[in-house]
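Researcher: I'm preparing a figure for a lab meeting and need a structural model of a single chain. I don't have an experimental structure, so a prediction will have to do for now. The sequence is pasted below. Please return the structure as tokens so I can convert it later.
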Amino acid sequence: MDNNQPEGKKPMALNIVNAKSKHKGFGAGSIDLNNVSPVIIDGGEAVIDIGAMHAKSKVEKGIKFSPNREDVPNGRQVWVVWVAVDRTPEGQSYGGVTACEMWIDTEARRGWKILADHVNKLDSALKRRVILEGLGAADKAALKALLIAHNAEWWDASTAELKAALSE
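Model: Understood. Here is the structure written out token by token.
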């Protein structure tokens, strides 16, 4: 997976929607998704993949998901990390960051994930919680590097809890 964009396209941004527009679709208005973005961590590499908002990330496309982990014996571990940006009078920072596990077998086009966990972790990120259980050191390092590279000022203004969770 890479972050390279075709020439002429805008670079991928962490905020999924700009300030002028609102997220549209089922349940629009009940949850403000303007300040949350998904990051996919696959093989120790973290990339912003907006498609994950609707389970259509690059790694999820063409995969039939099962709620039974046994259905994906040859899968690889992939993480969806929900990153919420906090906007305060002092400025912006990374507020909530939560990680959800998936297992994907690209060759067999099968995968495992618990959709309810993904939804609950998205909700937790929106509530400015930091939940990164299960993420290994390499995955945490990749996520930290992506967040800093995307906006170092937001990283500097983030909570000590988030910085500690990604430095373990």
